[in-house]
Amino acid sequence: MNGKINLRTVPGLPNNFAKFEKEKKHILIMKKIIFSALPIAAIAAITLLPVNDPLPIGASLPNPELKMKDISGKMISFKDAKKKNGLLVMFSCNTCPYVIKNQDRTNEVSKYALGNDIGVVLLNSNEAYRSNEDSYTAMKDYASDQNFNWYYLVDTDSEMANAFGANRTPECFLFDNSGKLVYHGAIDDNPSNANAVNRKHLKYAIDEMKAGKDVSVKESRSVGCSIKRNK
Q1: Considering the chain, what is the average pLDDT of its residues?
Q2: What letter would DSSP give residue 194?
Q3: For position 194, what pLDDT does the model report?
Q4: How many Å separate Cα 193 from the centre of its chain?
Q5: What is the pLDDT of residue 51?
Q6: Whose CA is closest to 57, among 167, 160, 179, 181?
């Protein structure tokens, strides 16, 4: 006796042994499928994350001299767009339901910023959609429909989105006249319902910044669609 039991010789098991062996093989196959799929799932999850951490409050405006194509056909940098009291950079697009839902608020706060001598730049970083819904032509059409009176730039290869650590549309970054970040986040505290807004974060940040005060709410959570980077 070697201590091992041959299952084929155990009374009552011969009829069930083939079934047992079949189920064991099925379990092994399923394990291989699950474990082979894990790296793919991990890679897919990584693509949903921002390439870098978001800019911290107090950080300098990234790549201020990099030229990007505006819907006017001109090549514009942040340095070109910045005005006396600073610069508002907003990551946006043509298609995200949250962008569309917030478009009136985007227009309102962009006009407010310009009226306070703050430059405004909207960036379209949806590089994965560049051949269709977020093409340059589609950007021009969307801006025309919305009567944009500010820059709407193509962020080629999502370069600026990566530099900012931006991951949502809409997502706002407000810089003061020295190019330092003073506010990052949403336009207000209720992106889903304009009628239920209690605090207009971005507008208040503009007011406090212009008055030379410390911005009281420096960060808020951006709610929207993920930026569609190329994988």
Answers
A1: 84
A2: G
A3: 87
A4: 20
A5: 58
A6: 181
Task: Give 203-207 contacts, CB < 8 A, sequence gap 24+.
Answer: 203/109, 203/112, 205/174, 206/88, 206/109, 206/112, 206/113, 206/116, 206/118, 206/174
Phi, psi of 105 (to 5 degrees): -70, -35
**What is the secondary structure of 67-89 as a DSSP string?**
-EEBTTS-EE-HHHH-BTTBEEE
The strand ranges marked E within the chain are 68-69, 75-76, 87-92, 119-124, 151-154, 168-169, 171-175, 181-185, 225-226
CA atoms in the 13 A half-sphere facing the CB of 230? 9
Banded pLDDT at 221 (limits 50, 70, 90) = very high
Q: At what angle do helices 201-210 and 103-115 cross, to 10 degrees?
A: 10
Distance of alpha carbon 162 from alpha carbon 180, whole angstroms: 18
More confident residue, 21 or 126: 126
**Cα torsion angle, 168, 169, 170, 172, sign:** positive
Token pair belonging to 129: 């959609």
In tens, the pLDDT along 96-137 reads 999 999 999 999 999 999 999 999 999 999 999 999 999 999
Taking a C-beta distance cutoff of 8 angstroms, is the pair 69, 75 a contact? yes
C-alpha–C-alpha distance, residues 92 and 64, integer Å:
19
State yes or no: pLDDT of 52 exceeds 70: yes
